[in-house]
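Handout, section B. The chain below has 122 residues.
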Amino acid sequence: LRGHLVARMQANRRDNWLIYGERNARHDAIWAEELQAWREADALQRLDCVYSRDGQSLRYVQDVLLAQGDTLRRWVDEGAAIYVCGSRAGMGEGVDAALAGLLGADALAALMQAGRYRRDVY
């Protein structure tokens, strides 16, 4: 996904929202400085970093989507594409379920058909 973001920035596209999920900020914030610099330069309109094992309760990428449902629907209505990269089990399945719940299964299928919902899950 980093390559997609860099290409969009080079094309002067600033309407980017990254939800970055990992287990632990202390060990897994590999791109933290670069991501924060992009956010400060307004190359990312939104940056949500989610570390599932930092804190009392587990919090995942799909939890951010659910909490930001109105914002997500607005971005999709305005033409956003959604790219998901990461673990198929857990995150990938959870993101699919969250998107289907927020947008509806038919709308999610239409996004996939239009190439606006792409997944690289493993």
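Note. The longest strand covers residues 17-22. Compare this with the example in section A.
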